[in-house]
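Narrative summary of target 7.
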Amino acid sequence: MLLPSVPRRVAMLSVHTSPLDTPGDGDAGGMNVYVVEVAERLAAAGTEVEVFTRATSSELPPCVEIAPGVTVRHVLAGPYEGLAKEDLPGQLCAFTVGVLRAEARQDPGHYDLVHSHYWLSGQVGWVVKERWGVPLVHSMHTLARVKNVALAEGDRPEPAARVIGEQQVVDAADLLVANTDVEAGHLIGLYGADAEHTRVVHPGVDLDTFRPEHGARRRLGLPDDAVVLLFAGRIQPLKAPDLLLRAAAELVRDHPALRERLVVAVVGGPSGAAGGRLETLAGLAGELGVADVVRFQPPVGKDALADWYRAATVTVVPSYNESFGLVALESQACGTPVVAARVGGLPTAVADGVSGLLVDGHEPGAYAAALGRVVSEGFRQRLAAGALRQAARFSWDVTVAGLTDAYRDATSRHAEERARLSA
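Modeled conformation, tokenized:
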């Protein structure tokens, strides 16, 4: 029996965030990185990728080629600006029509497969799969039922509509791609996903961009002897940047001499429906007495982000939930150890005691203790060496090889189902 061939062309759906957006601001994050890296490598291997995303500006052209064989299509669905992610379910019908219209202009069989990202895209993928007669592969990236179990203070639970929508996508997809074994377990245990059609494919890291390099502190205007605690990501309760500030306050209380060299760098922008979180975070720094050591930096491109990782003594990832944690992997690839929450996919990304430290719970004192250990020079050097080894285990080429196998599996399952229904 011949194996299904690699798809000639994949329609990738990313409704709520564009691969053109800079991660770390608004709704842009690790998923944006994932879509871009995977799409470019699929195209380099011979599979064209067209990414459909919602148009958020009248100045955006209908199509943008971001790499040979990778096109981003901007779909009109709702107002360009001022539409929160929570309001997007009301625009899924318009988005779906836009995707169907784009396919209708092509010859029949233009797309061989649909790969949707996040549950909103999965809802669209469910429709176009049926319309085009092609398999649907879906990546959740985050799960409502998991997020609602571990909410940060001040965060709102995900609505029942999302839980129902995720369940519908799980039932409709030909194959589900999970970032880790933990996520696969959640899909199977919480959503009843078919274990035989749930594939674990780890995300990767761009080892050409994220690598050790001298001169980062000079380029960023940081003293050579600084102790730099880095947070990189969206400013929202889920990511817990406030926990880093609280831990830093305890750290300088326990080690007063450290204040003279301490820099707490927060690289990222506000995210979510509630505004003013940067101001709230700055106010908290003042209340804790560490405003003088905190430095806020807006989101940056990946080359500048790599410099922040290189300049850091340690990168802190205190999230309440992470499906994987690309920040942790990127930091380690630059030779910088990580202190992270023992949640979600972070125990996969970080080798506890080898490339960084994992912390149970979200108590500032526990993070301060872990940071105090890591900034100890001898221990940090050992962790830095382990960080490089850990990151080297992951690459986007390996990710794409796993996805290609997943696409073959989905194609086989889809063909078998069509044959069963037509018998």
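The longest strand covers residues 48-54.
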